Sequence to fold (630 residues):
Amino acid sequence: MSETKSMQRGADARSTAGDQAWDIAGALARILRDAIGASLGVAGDDADPALRSSTNPKFGDYQANFAMALSKRLGRPPREIAASVVEAARGPIAAIAEPPEIAGPGFVNIRVRTGALGAALAAIDCPSLGVPDVQGTRTIAVDLCGVNVAKQMHVGHLRATIIGDTIARLHERMGWRVWRENHLGDWGLPIAMVLASLRRRGTDLGAITLADLNAAYRAAQAESADDEAGLAAVRSTGAGPHRLIELEAQHSGAAAAAEDARRTLRLLQSGDGATVADWRKLIDVTMHEVFETAKTLGVDLRPEHSRGESFYRDRLAATVDAFVRSGLATEDQGAIIVRFADRERPLLIRKSDGAFLYATTDLAAVQFRVQELGAERVVYCVDARQRDHFADVFDACRMIGWTRRRDGTDAELRHAGFGAVLGADKRPLKTRSGENFTLKALLDEAVERGTFEVRRRAEDPQAPTHGMGDAELARIGRAVGIAAVKYADLSSDISRDYVFDLDRMISFEGDTGPYLLYAHARICAILAKAGDMDAHAAIAPDVPEERALALAILRWPSTVADAAHALEPNRICGYLFALAGAFSGFYQACPVLRAEDPGVRASRLRLCALTRRVLADGLGILGIDAPARM
RNA sequence: GCACGCGUAGCUCAACGGAUAGAGCAUCGGUCUUCGGAACCGAGGGUUGCAGGUUCGAAUCCUGCCGCGUGCGCCA
Fold:
């Protein structure tokens, strides 16, 4: 969604929901659109004023770029077009801005009047901060986290969890009804394998940890590894009989383990009481740690968000049937597949042995989310490598009509695919011994580093944190460490890989989470020292640094709407960094508490308070806790 | 082989088809009896992988190359 479109949305909202005095950009866009219609006879999409925030303060606060685009269509020079529109808009625009200037090939540069800017700031200083609210009339399902039972969370889950949480929070912030769907891997042969392996050993499932489970998972996989290929290779290369016998013994052991796993799976599927009870214990052990990690991360993930693969187990046969009956699925080499017109790759929805696949579950889940949860958007926060898979699943759902909602509209299916977390060597992050990093280890290190830095600074007698208790410093250090990791992950385009570099993330300099926390804490200090303030003081942004800060604040509502629409958390990050930068400039140039004029002091205090609220609001959307002191 | 994604400053990354492609880090130079210096201001640094095309205007859209990455029926 372009900024222009969201500005237009602001204008549209005003016409139905009354005046939104903070929405200067929306008002300007509407005035220009009307003027384009009145003076040029152009309407609809062609009358788009193409209003943008100016790229450079010398071009004013906003610029409108419509003239060049209309030049060819109307056969008139762009500057002439701009002039006639500006003339037609002169009256209504005068209340908001200085007379617009026409520059270059036909840009219309607009500078907002100080009075209008102050009034807009006073208007946006309300509970919603101007962010649109759909009041529960719209519904989204966000597929996030996606852990597997009996497996330790690793760095991939970091992204699936915090990106999903941010997308959920973005929509919650705008009043959407949000379903957080933790699509656990809690069903099928892999789980049965672990369960079978643990039961063979007589392990006490009541006293097991996730680390134990993870080890059992790997052991079970190794036990069942069918070494047919190795056997064939040994035979063909004529390796010694000792090696051959060893492999054959391993092979028969593996066959026994695999058979045990299949038997366990059958018990589980048939609802055998003892087996199901043990299965639930595996889930409990796994989820206990998942929820702990979510708490550490500041992610809203609770038991009621769990709806794993097992939830869909009784819908899979019907899913396949529906595709077969509709003629979209056919049998091929014993398997059931869905073919597409534009690609060779088919989608397998049932194996030749009759078992279902993860694609089958995904199809059933789309139908459930759209038709039973009523979602108009379904978002998958899953590794970008599954792009092809989701393209197939989404297309299959459209073909069979499962994106159709009760009101007849089509749901929007989106894969918010994210890139890999890389180590310094540009390869997927591994420990020195070549293992995947557990998420817990990674977060422990981040918290440790954050705490170290906070404690080190607290030793300075001048530091505001000097003399704080150890528990308080630890709390702040934890917030800093987690903010560093989360901000680094969310601040670049999610579809790209990024290099995990804790030194850079936590350096406290530049575009980092700790920098934003610092900006927030600094404002908190000013407000605390100010004591009582006049919440209704007039705001008069006179000097350039005040104007820049004011204009940044007014961009907040459209930033939230755009980030939610595009599913791009990095837009929130970029905005907050720019806001913090604008505040720093203001702070440097404009004394607040030391301002001599009481009116100026009160105006600037309100600007500080408003900035703090927007910062806290944005950090809240990212799920980042902002301490008052650090 | 086919499909998809990505190539922007030394490094990490921005940029809705719009004015001189911007930030951060690093480098160099300033501010400084601090409303919190974890700050601010400035400088240098670019043929946006290459070649064409569309457009008043292209990092952005189209085509072809080159390079890197990922995926490609009975795992999830």
Remarks:
- Chain A has a mean pLDDT of 90.
- Residues 232 and 363 of chain A are 38 Å apart (CA to CA).
- Chain A is about 55% helix and 10% strand.
- The longest strand of chain A covers residues 343-350.
